[in-house]
Amino acid sequence: MRGIKNPLLLLLITTVITGLVGCVTGPMAVKPTTKAVAVIQPLQDSGIKGIVTFIQEGSGVRIVAEITGLPPGKHGFHIHEFGDGTAAEGVSLGGHFNPANTTHGGPEDQERHIGDLGNLEADKSGRAKYNRLDTRIALHGRNSIIGRSVVIKEKVDDYKTQPGGGAGQRIAYGIIGISSLPFGE
Ligand SMILES: [Cu+2]
Ligand SMILES: [Zn+2]
């Protein structure tokens, strides 16, 4: 500790370092999130229900959704910025999650919002399944979707129209929370 002559300063530095190490390795350490879930609920009495899970898979996140009660056809499927369902018609969910301030696109486009997951496609009975590995959303860090929302739209997302893909009204949503279950249970 050459150069630090003030014993009080030395004590302060030692205390701070010990505190930092304690935070990282002590009982306060938290396991990184590897699974998240959103329970889908209807907006505007749409009757739509379902579950969307997000599972860490390598450096990406696998999204698995099973939704019922949809009008047959394609529906925009997005992560929105806020996990706040207080306002009617889903207005408080904000716009598409877009931390890098880019333009709207499709899930495989280089230029897209982080929240752009493409479309769900419902069959004649109103059931849609979606299973895709996404390399842009994350369960931690700047692109973390935890505490945000999944939103299903009335119409198809054309991947071009700004800012939302021309997909119309919000017809269902779910808040994304940390999952308690191992995948498969
Ligand atoms: Cu959306
Ligand atoms: Zn978008």
What amount of the residues lies in strands? 25-35%
Known CATH architecture of the largest domain: Sandwich
Number of domains: 2
The molecules bound to the chains, other than polymers, are: copper (II) ion, zinc ion
CATH fold call of the largest domain: Immunoglobulin-like
Indicate the structural class: mainly beta
What is the molecular shape? globular
Largest sheet: 8 strands, antiparallel
Treating each run of at least 4 consecutive H or I residues as one helix, how many helices? 1
What strand line-up does the widest sheet have? 5-4-7-8-1-2-3-6
The string of secondary-structure elements, in order, is HEEEEEEEE
pLDDT < 50 stretches: none
- Residue-averaged pLDDT: 89
In helices, the fraction of residues equals 10-25%
**Terminal Cα separation, in Å?**
54 Å
Q: State the total count of DSSP E strands.
A: 8
Find the CATH superfamily of the largest domain.
Answer: Superoxide dismutase, copper/zinc binding domain
Q: What is the name of the CATH class of the largest domain?
A: Mainly Beta
Rg measurement, Å: 21 Å
Quaternary state of the chains:
single chain
Could you explain how this protein is built, in words?
The chain is built from one helix and eight strands. It is mainly beta and 185 residues long. The chain has two domains: 1-30; 35-178, Superoxide dismutase, copper/zinc binding domain (Immunoglobulin-like), CATH 2.60.40.200. Zinc ion is lined by residues 78, 96, 104, 113, 115-116.
